[in-house]
Amino acid sequence: MPQQSFKLLLMVLLILFSSLDVFSELPQCFHFTWIGPYENKSNLPKENCDSRVGDFNGIPCEMPLVATTNDTVPDVKALWQNNTLNREHYLCQMSPGYSCVKYSYIFKGGIQNITYMCAKVNSSNGCFRQRHSTGMQVEACVCTSKVGLIPCNVGSTTTTTTRNHILGLALAFYGVFNMFIIVK
Q: Which residue ranges run through the membrane (predicted)?
């Protein structure tokens, strides 16, 4: 009888955790364009992707446009961890069939701009670099994020939520308990 009570408790825990939003969420990707070194930052609110890219349709650009005070590459790990910002403004849901992409323009060893986005691509993971005769390099890094973790189009550092740990433990206990019942 105690085994059935324990099994019932585990089932209730699994149902409880499955109702949390962790299962209804999709993995996320960063979604914005860092415009690179930019002298007159007060003009930025007046700009959009059309004004930045113009006739060059092949250059990716995603709103919002972002400039940093010291013109360095944005610290997206700090953005992810910052609870005071509306970070949802800088994220997109990685829908099925899509990947996270970090698309960078590099000239003379310096990053000129970066676009972070969700996109359909022909590859699932990895970085691809193309050199142009002008010296410009274009690098596209593609990856697949996981629910509850920092978007992968930042780097390899990940964080997990407590709910994922608890759910994992509940599933592990349930599996061990079922194995114990079968062996008896």
A: 166-183
- Helix 2-18 vs helix 162-183: crossing angle, to nearest 10: 150
For 70-125, write each residue's pLDDT tens digit. Answer: 899 999 999 899 888 888 899 999 999 899 999 999 999 899 999 999 999 887 78
Q: What is the pLDDT of residues 34-54, one digit of tens each?
A: 999 888 888 888 899 988 877
Structural domain count, the chain: 2
User: Is 72 in a helix, a strand, or coil?
Assistant: coil
Look at residue 178 and give its three-state secondary structure: helix
Confirm whether pTM is higher than 0.85.
no
> Are the C-beta atoms of residues 116 and 153 closer than 8 Å to each other?
yes
* CA-closest candidate to residue 31, choices 184, 126, 145: 145
Cβ proximity of 72 and 3 under 8 Å: no
Radius of gyration of the chain (CA): 22
Residue keyed to tokens 């961890």: 81
Cβ atoms of 103 and 60 within 8 Å: the answer is yes
Region 57-71: mean pLDDT is 89
Q: What angle do CA 99, 104, 110 make, to 5 degrees?
A: 155
Same domain, 17 and 37: no
